[in-house]
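Support case: user asked for a sample of complex input and structure output to validate their parser. Sending the pair below.
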Amino acid sequence: MNLVNLLRHISLKHVRLQKAQLLIAVAGIGLGVAAMVAIDIVNVSVLRSFAESIDQITGRAALEISGAESGFPEALLERVQEVPGVEYAVPVIETNANLADGSKRALMILGVDVLQDHQIRNYSLTDEAADIPDPLLFLAKKDSLLLSKTMAEQEKIAIDQEIRLQTVQGIKTFKVRGLLNPEGPARVAGGDIAIMDVYAAQLAFGKEGRIDRIDVSFLPGEKLDPMMARIKQVLPQGYTVDTPAGRTRQVEILLERFQKNIAFTSTLVMFVGMYLIYNIISISVVQRRKEIGILRAIGARRSEIITLFFAETCVVAALGALLGIGLGLVFAKLTVGFVAQYITDVYLQTSVTSLTFSPAMFVRDAALGILASLVAAAFPAVSSVRFTPITAIRTQASAGDGFILSRKIKITSALLLALALALLAAYRTAAPGSDFRTTTVTVASAISLIVGISLLTPAFLQGAMRLFHRFLSPRLGVAGRLAGINLHKNIGRNGVAVGAIFFSISLYVCSANSMHSLNISMFDWIDSIIRADLLISSGSPLAAGGAHSIPMPASLGEEIEKIPGVRMVEPFRKGYLTYQNKKILLEIFDVALRMEYCPGMFAEGNREEVIRLMPGQDTIFINEGFAEQYNLHPGDTVVLPTPHGPVRFGVAAVAVSYSSDAGVVWMDVHTYRRHWQDTLVDTYELLVQEKSEIPQVRQAILDRLGQERHLFVLPALEFRNEIKKLLANTSILFQAVNILVLLIAGFGIVITLLASVLERTREIGVLRAMGMKKNQVAGVVIIESALIGTLGGLLGSATGLLLGWIAVEGFFRLDYGASIVYHIDFSAIAWAILLSTGLAALAGFYPARRAAGINIVEALSYE
Amino acid sequence: MIELRQASRKYQQGAREVYALRQVNLLINQGEFLSIMGPSGSGKSTLLHLMGGLDQPSEGEVFLDGKPLHGISDNELTLLRRRHVGYVFQFFNLLPLLTAAENVGLPLLLEGLPFSQVKLRAESLLQQVGLAERTEHRPDQLSGGEMQRVAIARALIANPAVLLADEPTGNLDSHTSEEIFLLLKGLNDQGQTIVMVTHDPKAAAYGNRILTLKDGAPVQDIAIGEQAA
């Protein structure tokens, strides 16, 4: 009850006076909570949509059997159908196509056995009866398909109308035999789906003799585990037999890595919010020292004062959490599309039509935000009662600097710095896959470093001021000398402001240097792997959504080779393999041709070994992430699943690649075609006879082949530049966070200096009475402010350099699975110091005006 | 009421120990109005702080109404302060954001009583000190004398065993000072035990006993009647 009294009669009055501080604190916590809420909502929404899509597609299937992404022999279907206990086993082709006309949008194609599929899935047609119209007609006419009513309405397509689809065989015409109501499979992919006969789909999409999946239902009474075991026995090794829910689990694993990036950003933002709370509570403690002394003198216990500050923090954090929940919903809406597209690219067309969230999710994230705020407020709250009541009433704030400059603080700081270094050393020396080789360890190291140096900020300020007095102060006139004295007089309060700038500048320099390093490494890599003159695909190679790339037949390469000016045509195919329950990227090209003009970047082994060992052989090369995760080196072997069973491949080399964080395997196209019987091509890479003829060759290709299929023919230089632009744009998010952090630090300086001006009211009155001009008074405050900014900038830049190295080594390396060389961006450091000084000086303008405008008579009698 | 036995308070100044108070033995009875005098640095305020639980002796013992103020936890000391001591400071030490009624009621608000109840008592005390019309005024809207009256009312709200005043008129003009002394005298006449630190002999004369300190130790302790004699 006394807490309520104190909150109502004391805290509330402070809030009314310090609305700006309150708003900043609320905003800081709000952003952190918003990021957490957005991650949770996006995660749950995408998974739910994916799971719903799976349910809608798989219908009554109890098990799904899948193999390579390019499909597996349909002969396996019979084996599964003969397994005792199987009621129905139906084949499925699951692929994508693009409309050749109209919006040219992508749609999912489901190829099913029209005679049997209704035993697994329900189809509801807009007209007539429940069954697929005349299955025999479907079988007889290979151009038949059923379109979802949703898509038909959007594209204005009617029954019996012909539509053109981009397929592997080029642009083909199909007839819409019926429209599906938005139920069951027709709801998948937001309704962008068509159903075909499975054999017609095989022909249209280059999967002759192959299927993508077998959906299985059981006879009544059969149990899942025994059925699974029986079915696995009839299949070669390497096939996945799982419940439909198993696919959702795979996506969860996939999303884990994706979310790590966003979680890191949200932790960063939350950290900023925490620092803000720490800053604001620290300044509040300083400003209210006398009030605390009076309350203690008349009988407020230490615990009651500490609880009061915690309660105030709780209220602010709760407001921030409420704001964060609202913002989080907005952020989720803006970002869910990107995540859904990522899942679509790897797994299955997924579109999120509505966000999924729950009160429990909001409560948890709000609680985390409040807890983080309480942690941030702990030190200043506890330190608020370290003075005796009389000391607190009588003395100026600077008298309390002994604690923050004490041995205890310095020892704590030293221990934290030692911990940071120890964690880094543990990370560097740990074996791949061990508990110490994780981002948790590197993040813990970074946090220890930041907190350790933060605790040293007052001592740093004290040391810097000594140097300032000795070397700079005599050159700066009265205003400069007074500014230095004022800063030195109140190390506690000014140390917090320096700390705020230090924190934000260290984040800025860290992200600038790590992004700079990442960009240089990735640009070098892109330049090393994209060496062709022209790239040909059937969908834009730069498209993140919209038109999907439809594979092209191998025969197209032969036609392209005949075009005048073309020197060499090399096929490129991409797919995913499941290796030890994780999706890894499989890239296929003609090694002998590629290595002629493309040196690549090798971490272990070399180009010559690759040329010697790979063409047509069961040999691969892998990326660093894959090598590190499974402890593989050149000369080792790895067993990969193929449609005909597992095959042992030798490892020729380990290459640098940033394509996938889960692992990349490169294989020669002849080896791939031998094992997978897949001759499709995703991209053709061309070399021309004369570089000057690239535009002419490009046009010739479009003229010759552009009628029968939509092709994108892109000069590789243009493609490289566009990729680099995309990469550069990804750093915009970090820059936005940095700017936000800098702005918040700037507000922190305004608050600090206003507090300083208030405390020195009488002193300013005396100076003015003795003849100091208004602009001189203002000058003192601005110089103080600029000094705070410069010192924070210097300390922050030095720390940021180290943090950048930690980020590159411990975060990006684990994230991309590839070595990234640390490059220092000196211009960013120069900007950081200029920015911190300039921003701080700017932040000092308002307090400087307040100081200059103080009424002399009132100031002299100020208590 | 208040008893000190061989009470000392020392501080560390660099390598040496400095005694602000040295082996003080003192007994203050209920209803007394004790003035503590002495030159600057004689230990007057330190003695007051020990009596009021704002500080603890380095050596010796201090008792308030039989309860020890030495060797107890900060929590216990704080509660004793809240319930048994009323403090009046030289610079008033009112909370600037609170109204007069809220300032007066602070000790009871700390006990957790509802403000509606506290306000009634606060207003009654403000009336007693002549500030019935000022209950909703904040300190920046009051004169120095009015602020000190509010401070006195605050010191009385918990019915303390003793009211301790540290140079209560140090910041006031002579006319206002006299009003404050008369107020304190009136309270003492009603039975309130008062201990007042002052450097002004005229102020000390409002009490009924004068204790003079020099260099941290009592040098004279006389009843006002004796002094007159």
